[in-house]
Amino acid sequence: MVLNRPPMGWNSWNTFGKDVNEKVILESAEALVSSGLADAGYRYVVIDDCWALRERGPHGELVPDPKKFPHGMKPLGERIHAMGLKFGMYSCCGLMTCAGYPSSLDREWQDAQTFAEWGVDYLKYDYCFRPQNRKGEELYRAMGLALANCGREIVFAACSWGADETEKWIGTSGADTWRSTADVFDNWRSIERAVVKQFSLLPYRKKGCFNDMDMLVVGMNGKGNVGLGGCTFTEYTTHFSAWCLFQSPLFIGCDVRNISDEALSLLKNEALIGIDRDEKCAQVYCLPACMAWEEDGDRLFAAVRLLADGGLAVGLFNFTEQERNAVCLLNDLGLGVRSCKRVQLTDCLTGAVSFSRNGVIEAVLPPHGSAVYRAKIISGQGILP
Fold it and tell me: Would residue 332 show up in a list of annotated catalytic residues for this protein?
């Protein structure tokens, strides 16, 4: 299996943490369908940590907690599949999971077979409690090989947080996605750190092994397991826009059973999702979006990606604490003056159409704000060769 698009879905951790159970999972799956999020592409329903008993069974097998999951995992997976959705699970490469439950170290083949028998379509594989004498690349290769031979197509989502130079070896493991950041919490500084970290990782993004910037916190509003302060809607919009520009997997973390109309509209935005899932999967590049005499290039920046239709996705981002004018020069996008070209810009949030002027794309952005455009290359009438 080759994953040609970043996967999309919902994960239990951000909102429910250790309080995950069958009822929560089924209600959340139903909400994905009834809200239209499933139709927008969010198909994977992922049970994160804390789903198992603290000890393995008599044959060394993983055992779902019968109080949390009274019908077991296979029937649960069947119910999720019956809704037209995909079923995701969680394990870890260390001695135990991050919350202290049994993990898959040296039991990769047994556990991969178990997940296949349960009908699992996606495995999030964490990095806690790794023995110091075992290399991360060795442990991820072991699970990657086991999954490739389990008899079922299972998306392998490596979650090593970018530790131990993950970007340099994760491609050897067979992983379909890899986490490049520590956990993202529901506050602006956490989002900012995750985005800024991407600047050094741009060469390591590719089709078939997508760079995962962690679950989305859009719509959490300070509630839930990682709801540490919450964000403004402007910040949530910048968060979602950045994840789409950088072509991260999109996994909702809020309580989709009680999602606001505002958050729902953002998460279903067809233009932004279209950029995230563009089939070209070209490498994103970043440019300073400030004037030449300013020194905020790492906090006022443009992210740009070539799209399959020959156009560009252009995002302008203001990570400063003041309203700022962000600028992006067409020359830096490959459109020099002698190209006699300019760009037609379609705002991904409003649908408004505008045009570049004087060889520049620009927008006035509020603090922590952003603007994302689909840019179509057109004839630059009036521009001399």
Answer: no
